[in-house]
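[Automated response] Your request has been received and processed.

Submitted sequence:
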Amino acid sequence: MAPRRTINPAGLDLQERVVEINRVAKVVKGGRRFSFTALVVVGDEDSIVGVGYGKANEVPVAIQKGVERAKKNLFKVPKHGDTITHRVEGVFGAGRVLLKPASPGTGVIAGGGVRAVLELAGIHDILSKSLGTQNPINLVKATVAGLQALRTPEGVAELRGLTVAQVLGLTEKTGDGAPEPAAEETAAAAPVAAEPAAAPTAPAEPGSAGGGEGSEAPS
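Generated structure:
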């Protein structure tokens, strides 16, 4: 499970966005009592975002409670430029959200609460797809679960005992600035040692057992 990265909201310029307001009715002896729930997303539009859910008898109070709870659940999203670091799938209840990095200029391909979370997290290029329920609460929380599961190249390199360049598949440069060849290329370029030539055979003396022409038979 990904570690929690809770952020102190003090000193941050947080923006608020209401995803959904729902009216709830409670039936009592005297009739129905109505209350309201508000799903709110807050973020600094850079890399910090949080989600809160508030309930009250009036809409403004419900929104205020949602904002306060969202500020208690702030976390930092690992990013690579204006997109996420790698593909991830967030799951919460019946909600499943697939998030994929995108090239610059793609924009935020998402809708509803997923778009609100991604935009307030400062992500400008990303592809998303809802694979489960369309309940906005589960969708938003599944998106948050996916963003919290993201890992940075530095963290992966530390766990594997490698460098960041090796994790990203980049070629490391030598001191003179030229790229260092891979081990396979070095082995292929090395000359193969020539096998030692066989020792030359001494010529047969005339008159030997296997003598050729001109050898005389003994008398």
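Summary generated for your ticket: The helical segments are 59-72, 112-120, 136-148, 153-160, 164-168, 183-189. The first strand starts at residue 15 and ends at 28.
If you did not submit this request, please reply to this message.
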